[in-house]
């Protein structure tokens, strides 16, 4: 973004933030973080941001009980949740506002947003409203919070980050991927699914990427090895290493698994929480005309930044991540800013819409 120099907008914001910090007698960690975020926010890059030092955070111990009783937070210190999110926008890094996620039970987050004790929470279950006031002493460490949470929720056996189900009646295989982790577990799971798809002559395969926050984009490339194409286009990029810059070649030869090729219908399920590599997976399928997207647009732009580098600020305890790549849409003729679903619907209605589409396209 700044290979040709800092933009005037960012430089002006930086100067203003620096001036505000220099005028203070004392600077807290969150004073500094707010000023950093007010600059980074202007970039419109959801991958570039600072984060609280989570191990040193504390969490409202009343939350597990309230949530288990069906209550949600409706306001804090007189501000509704909607107002809290609206006021927080200038300090968050996002490409679509649906990506903003605020932990309203985090003491560090409350301080970051400018709230101080006592904290007056209003809770509602849709019919009843409860008002309770808490102090910092009502916030506990993550380990203690997790113990309290276990008292109110039965912890079921966690599923792997990737698994699949076969519905023979609908001739549908559903691969659920909660994280884009490219490892042997993923490779083996996808292979097992396509073996069963071939054995049972399944005509439709869907990949559920709802809530997937990203990871490795190689998960999409591995999936495509089961599709009957010799080559395809991947997203091109400019990758900056300091003063060096590398460019990608978007055309990729498909190293097919020839004995397990699938020539049926492919669908990708996405929502506003499908981010980064999950968005790339959806774009890879849509822009190469290999399948259709069902649900909501993923959380970040098709022409955006990523491939983050992480580091830690030792004096403040803040974590930082910064993008090093500029990504470009695979299909340059498509002018949509996001991956727009071929079959749009609410995230909760994805399977209803998918079944409807499958029945229509029989």
Structural category:
alpha+beta
Q: Which shape, going by the Cα principal axes?
A: globular
The level of helicity is 25-40%
**Order of adjacent strands in the largest pleated sheet:** 8-9-10-15-16-19
The mean pLDDT is: 93
Largest sheet: 6 strands, mixed
**Any idea what the radius of gyration is?**
23 Å
Order of helices and strands: HHEEHEEHHEEEHEEHEHEEEEEHEEEEH
Kindly estimate the percentage of residues that lie in beta strands according to DSSP.
15-25%
Total number of strands: 19
Low-confidence stretches: none
Through-space gap between termini: 46 Å
Count of DSSP helices? 10
How would you explain this protein's 3D organization?
The chain is α+β, with helices and mostly antiparallel strands. It contains ten helices and 19 strands. It has helices at about 10-20, 30-40, 65-70, 80-90, 105-110, 140-150, 185-200, 220-225, 275-285, 350-360, and strands spanning about 50, 60, 70-75, 80, 120-125, 130-135, 140, 160-165, 170-175, 205-210, 230-235, 235-240, 245, 250-255, 265-270, 290-295, 305-315, 320-325, 345. It has a six-stranded mixed beta sheet with strand order 8-9-10-15-16-19, with helices on both faces. A hairpin with a 2-residue loop joins β3 and β4 (about 80). α1 packs antiparallel against α2 and α8 runs parallel beside α9 (about 275-285). The termini are far apart.
């Amino acid at each position: 973004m700044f290979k040709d120099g800092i933009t005037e907008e960012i430089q002006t914001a930086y100067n203003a933030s620096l001036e505000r910090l220099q005028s203070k007698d004392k600077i807290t960690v969150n004073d500094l973080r707010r000023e950093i975020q007010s600059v980074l926010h202007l970039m419109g890059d959801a991958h570039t941001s600072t984060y609280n030092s989570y191990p040193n955070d504390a969490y409202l111990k009343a939350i597990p009980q309230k949530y288990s009783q069906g209550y949600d937070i409706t306001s804090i210190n007189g501000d509704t949740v909607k107002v809290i999110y609206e006021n927080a926008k200038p300090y968050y890094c996002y490409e679509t506002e649906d990506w903003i996620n605020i932990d309203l039970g985090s003491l560090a987050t409350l301080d970051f947003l400018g709230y101080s004790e006592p904290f007056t929470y209003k809770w509602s279950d849709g019919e009843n409203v409860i008002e309770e006031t808490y102090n910092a002493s009502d916030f506990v460490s993550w380990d203690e919070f997790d113990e309290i949470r276990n008292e109110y929720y039965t912890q079921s056996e966690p599923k792997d980050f990737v698994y699949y189900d076969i519905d023979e009646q609908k001739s549908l295989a559903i691969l659920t991927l909660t994280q884009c982790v490219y490892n042997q577990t993923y490779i083996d799971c996808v292979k097992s699914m396509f073996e069963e798809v071939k054995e049972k002559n399944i005509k439709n395969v869907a990949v559920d990427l709802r809530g997937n926050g990203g990871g490795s984009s190689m998960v999409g490339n591995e999936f495509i090895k089961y599709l009957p194409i010799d080559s395809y286009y991947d997203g091109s990029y400019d990758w900056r290493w300091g003063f060096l810059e590398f460019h990608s070649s978007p055309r990729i030869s498909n190293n097919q698994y020839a004995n397990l090729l699938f020539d049926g219908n492919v669908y990708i399920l996405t929502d506003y929480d499908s981010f980064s590599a999950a968005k790339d997976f959806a774009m890879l399928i849509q822009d190469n005309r290999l399948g259709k997207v069902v649900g909501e647009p993923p959380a970040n732009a098709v022409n955006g930044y990523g491939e983050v580098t992480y580091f830690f600020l030792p004096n403040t305890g803040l974590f930082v991540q910064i993008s090093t790549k500029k990504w470009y849409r695979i299909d340059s003729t498509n002018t949509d800013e996001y991956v727009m679903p071929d079959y749009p619907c609410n995230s909760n209605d994805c399977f209803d819409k998918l079944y409807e589409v499958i029945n229509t396209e029989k």
